[in-house]
Design brief:
Layout lengths: L5 E7 L16 E2 L2 E2 H10 L4 E8 L3 H11 L3 E5 L6 H12 L5 E6 L7 H13 L4 E7 L8 E4 L5 E5 L6 H4 L3 E10 H4 L20 H7 L4 E5 L12 H21 L3 E2 L6 E2 L3 E3 L4 E2 L4 E3 L2 E3 L4 E2 L3 E4 L3 E2 L4 E4 L1 E4 L2 E2 L4 E4 L2 E3 L1 E3 L4 E2 L4 E3 L1 E2 L4 E2 L2 E3 L4 E2 L4 E3 L2 E3 L4 E2 L4 E2 L8 E2 L11 H13 L1
Parallel strand pairs: 1-4, 1-6, 4-5, 7-11, 12-15, 13-16, 14-17, 15-18, 16-19, 17-20, 18-21, 19-22, 20-23, 21-24, 22-25, 23-26, 24-27, 26-31, 27-32, 28-33, 31-34, 32-35, 33-36, 35-37
Antiparallel strand pairs: 2-3, 6-10, 7-10, 8-9, 29-30
Bound molecules: uridine-diphosphate-N-acetylglucosamine and magnesium ion (MG).
Length: about 425
């Protein structure tokens, strides 16, 4: 049992030039959640880290805004200009002062790191009574990474960046993953002694290894087996690749819990979606955000579910249906071509094809709720203008626009009377064919 306090520093001040974007790199999303959010969630879900510092610089306001709105235990620290990873950590030093615990340093652009790995890493550091532990990995192609340098006794003595490395160092395949566990009290002085006389003219965080070795401190490397977890995002291609990796993990987890997924290549389901056993997911389904879906449902093909849907058991969400922030109770069907947003649907409700909940007023920018109670049904092509309630067992006629609440067991219908002009087409044909002679 760890009896040290642990805090984290997450580096997120860099520009991310290769993203070619106006948006800061760490705010790019996978399943609607920013990369930085994945790192913060992984850190917070360890249960062992109580406070985080995010180093912000490029577009600092936007990053800080996201952090403040979503993470209570996290402070942002400004780094301008960005003088290197060592300088970045040093910016948080005044806030840690004489903190007597461990500091985990991570990067805000590695969204695949898991809480389990972070905990194993802290435990390794603690069990070894280390002053500094660096996470490393073995890469067949180590290009662009800092290399882990060992002496002839295999003792870890330094990290050398690709741009500063000689050919012999470049041949090393053990790389620096960019995640560190620091015994703050014994290593904090290293940050004031960093120099920038290197190929990039930056204050390298990696130079704390040499400093600690010279001071005879206990320096360790923790070799990570699952390389995927330290995959860093530098481009839009990397973003797509990380999405695939995360999605595959999510689908495997669901299938292990009894969900049937027809086509894993065309199905995207966020890691925060919980789905019950024997639910069938048909091809081309896209589910983002945090959702729960019950047992024995049938979802898709071509369905889009997002932002906090709560779906019960035996529910059918059919083709070309979008569900947003809505609760749908057991045995209800939304089978075709519908939009259900900000709504509450009871059980045994039947939503006809093409039913739309008109939840958004683009002038007032207000979103309103639609409530459809147990056993009610809507005819095809109905528009329910929110806020509106359709009470138990009520029926909406096809093609209606509903702007008022409908009482239980009643029919509501808005429809101009049907007119039939007998033989109208025949007369027209005769008229035109006569005219052309
Ligand atoms: C860094 C490591 C390298 C390691 C690699 C792993 C150094 C010197 N090198 O290299 O050994 O293999 O990560 O991915 O640390 N950042 C700031 N402020 C700065 C500079 C960077 O906050 O002044 C942030 C960036 O936004 C990024 C992270 O630090 O999130 C890493 O910076 P980056 O420039 O990508 O370092 P690498 O060259 O990848
Ligand atoms: Mg990098």
């Amino acid at each position: 049992m760890l009896n040290k306090k642990v805090k984290s520093i997450i580096l997120a001040a860099g520009k991310g030039t290769r993203m070619k974007s106006d948006l800061p790199k760490v705010l790019h999303c996978i399943f609607n959640k920013p990369l930085l959010g994945y790192v913060l969630d992984a850190v917070n879900n360890t249960g062992s880290i109580d406070e985080n510092f995010v180093i912000v610089g490029h577009e600092a306001d936007k990053v800080e805004d996201y952090v403040v709105k979503n993470y209570e235990n996290t402070k942002c620290v400004l780094q301008t200009p960005q003088l290197g990873t060592g300088d970045a950590v040093n910016k948080a030093a005044p806030l840690l002062n004489d903190f007597n615990g461990y500091v985990i340093v991570l990067c805000g652009d590695t969204p695949l790191i898991s809480s389990q790995t972070i905990n194993n890493f802290i435990e390794f550091h603690d069990n070894n009574h280390a002053d500094l532990t660096v996470m490393s990995a073995i890469f067949e192609n180590p290009k662009n990474y800092g290399r882990i340098i060992r002496d002839k006794n295999n003792k870890f003595i330094a990290i050398v960046e690709e741009k500063d490395a000689n050919p012999q160092q470049k041949a090393v395949k053990e790389i620096n993953a960019g995640i560190y566990c620091i015994n703050w009290r014994t290593v904090r002085d290293s940050f004031n002694s960093l120099q920038n006389n290197n190929a990039q003219g930056e204050y390298y965080l990696t130079d704390i290894v040499k400093w600690a070795v010279e001071k005879n401190l206990n320096v360790q490397s923790y070799i990570l087996e699952n390389n995927e977890e330290i995959f860093g995002i530098n481009s839009k291609l990397h973003l797509a690749e990380a999405t695939k990796i995360l999605n595959k993990k999510s689908l495997i987890r669901l299938m292990e819990n009894g969900v049937q997924i027809t086509d894993i290549d065309s199905t995207f389901i966020s890691p925060e979606t919980v789905i019950g056993a024997d639910t069938i997911i048909l091809p081309n389904v896209y589910i983002t955000g945090k959702n729960t879906i019950g047992k024995n449902c049938k979802i898709g093909p071509f369905a889009h579910i997002r932002d906090g849907a709560k779906i019960g058991n035996n529910v059918r969400i059919g083709n070309f249906v979008e569900i947003k922030k809505s609760e749908i109770k057991d045995n209800t069907n939304v089978s075709h071509l519908s939009y259900i947003g900000d709504s509450e649907l009871g059980s045994h409700v039947n939503i006809g094809a093409g039913t739309i909940t008109a939840n958004y007023n683009p002038i007032s920018k207000v979103k309103s709720k639609t409530i459809i109670k147990d056993g009610a049904n809507t005819g095809s092509n109905s528009v329910l203008v929110a806020p509106v309630t359709i009470n138990e067992m009520a029926s909406i006629g096809a093609g209606s626009v509903i702007t008022k609440d409908v009482e239980a067991y009643s029919l509501a219908i808005t429809r101009s009377p049907l007119k039939i002009f007998s033989q109208w087409v025949r007369k027209k044909i005769e008229q035109y064919s006569g005219g052309s002679k």
